[in-house]
Design goal:
A five-stranded mixed beta barrel has the order 1-2-3-5-4. It has two helices and five strands, in the order H-H-E-E-E-E-E. A hairpin with a 2-residue loop joins strand 1 and strand 2. By secondary structure, the chain is mainly beta.
């Protein structure tokens, strides 16, 4: 696994506590496993930190900042949103939006 961000949460903790965290800022450290740049004016990342079981270990993040590479370890700081439907098949139960992403 990857060490938790200072003052942050693991992906497993975020998913377990999503109702309480919704609408608030979250910090998480993880490894970028997928990048889709420039879709609907945003860059879309999938981040994993080794916590959680398959199917509950991936966090989707949107950012307008620089695009990290797959394999980069990043710290993500953004607002947790629930049940977002962007249309065209982009539907997420849990997503971190408009995040500041820092490559370590």
């Amino acid at each position: 696994g990857i060490a938790k961000a200072e003052g942050g949460k693991t992906i497993e903790e975020i998913l377990a506590e999503q109702a309480a965290l919704a609408g608030g800022k979250v910090d998480v450290r993880g490894k970028v496993v997928k990048v889709n740049a420039g879709i609907m004016g945003k860059n879309w990342l999938h981040v994993r930190d080794g916590s959680g079981a398959e199917g509950t270990n991936d966090l989707t993040v949107t950012t307008a900042g620089a695009v990290p590479n797959v394999g980069d370890t990043v710290v993500v700081k953004g607002v947790l949103a629930l049940n977002k439907d962007f249309g065209m098949g982009y539907q997420y139960d849990v997503i971190v939006e408009d995040a500041e992403v820092t490559v370590e």
